[in-house]
Specification:
Elements: E1 9-10, H1 12-24, E2 29-35, E3 40-47, H2 53-58, E4 66-75, E5 81-90, H3 97-113, E6 119-123, H4 131-138
Parallel strand pairs: 1-3, 5-6
Antiparallel strand pairs: 2-3, 2-4, 4-5
Length: about 140
């Protein structure tokens, strides 16, 4: 069992679904949560390829921490279609201190399991991960 200092174990399903998002583009986003009892990061929700950014932000609980990845499609200033995979550490101010510490201490190890993340965002309220901010970080 991993202890909270070294980070959580990561379920195989998390890695598999991330590979599907990255390679096959089967999912628009994935939301992950830490299962404290089993000491591992688990899959919580998958967004279909047609899901919008609003669908994604609405799947993050307002008072609980989560990790998430979002496959963001955009057009560059040169009119090229591109996509970038965002890792979002969602840690709302209203969540429990213990939960914030657990997610913060496990984040780097979890991110290392997901090879192919291009941009990282840390958000404590929805305004810190608005679509404008995501677009700005993608370009």
């Amino acid at each position: 069992m991993a202890n909270s200092a070294s980070g959580m174990a990561v379920s195989d399903e998390c890695k598999l679904k991330f590979l599907e998002l990255k390679a096959k583009r089967n999912h628009r986003f994935i939301v992950f949560k830490i299962d404290e009892k089993n000491q591992q990061v688990m899959l919580e929700k998958l967004g279909s390829p047609q899901a919008s950014y609003d669908d994604f932000t609405n799947s993050l609980p307002p008072n609980e921490c989560r990790y998430a990845v979002f496959d963001f499609d955009f057009t560059t200033n040169e009119n090229c279609q591109k996509s970038k995979i965002f890792f979002i550490a969602w840690s709302p101010d209203t969540s429990k201190v213990r939960s914030k510490m657990l997610y913060a201490s496990s984040k780097d190890r979890f991110k290392r399991e997901l090879d192919g993340i291009q941009v990282e965002l840390q958000a404590t309220d929805p305004s810190e991960m608005s679509l404008d901010i995501v677009k700005g970080r993608a370009l």
